[in-house]
């Protein structure tokens, strides 16, 4: 735990990357999030005795079908990037496809050739050797990210609002 806390403190001293307009404007954050979705008619199921008639504790919400959808998106101080709906589990190969078709166009749109830094967490698909190699080949500068620190990313606030 000391290592994680130490790296978080070290990270917070990286020149105020989120604080000043000279730094925060060149960072864009990409991340996935899972959203729960419900389908069909939502009705109520009532379990009660005659004595409990119309008692609110006896009503139970009923969902016909439920599921989830994973979404990848990116944001920066300059605006929002692409939003991509993911199918299945994200492995390194799928992650590279997402970056190719969504992150790169978002970077071009948001920064128009100006220097910028991509922020991602340390999830396995993000830190896989092939993903890191792909990012190097595409000349994507990546912000070093402290382990176990997802809440530092501004995009987490976007996901919380949407959920």
From TrEMBL:
Entry-linked Gene3D superfamilies: Ribonuclease H-like superfamily/Ribonuclease H
Domain Tc1-like transposase DDE: 52-163
PANTHER family to which the protein is assigned, alphabetical: SI:DKEY-77F5.3, TRANSPOSABLE ELEMENT-RELATED
Matches recorded under InterPro entries: RNaseH_sf, Tc1-like_DDE_dom, Transposase_5
Protein name as annotated: Tc1-like transposase DDE domain-containing protein
A single GO molecular function term of this UniProt record: nucleic acid binding
Transmembrane segments: none
Pfam family, one: DDE_3
């Amino acid at each position: 735990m000391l290592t994680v806390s130490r790296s978080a403190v070290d990270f917070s001293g990286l020149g105020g990357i989120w604080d000043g307009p000279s730094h925060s404007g060149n960072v864009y954050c990409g991340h996935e999030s899972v959203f729960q979705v419900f389908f069909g008619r939502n009705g109520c199921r009532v379990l009660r005795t005659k004595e409990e008639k119309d008692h609110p504790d006896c009503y139970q919400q009923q969902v016909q079908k439920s599921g989830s959808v994973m979404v990848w998106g990116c944001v920066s101080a300059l605006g929002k990037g692409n939003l991509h709906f993911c199918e299945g589990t994200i492995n390194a190969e799928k992650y590279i496809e997402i970056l190719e078709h969504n992150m790169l166009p978002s970077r071009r749109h948001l920064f128009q050739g100006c220097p910028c830094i991509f922020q991602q967490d340390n999830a396995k698909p993000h830190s896989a050797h092939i993903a890191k190699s792909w990012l190097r080949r595409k000349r994507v500068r990546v912000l070093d990210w402290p382990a176990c620190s997802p809440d530092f990313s501004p995009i987490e606030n976007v996901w919380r609002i949407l959920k």
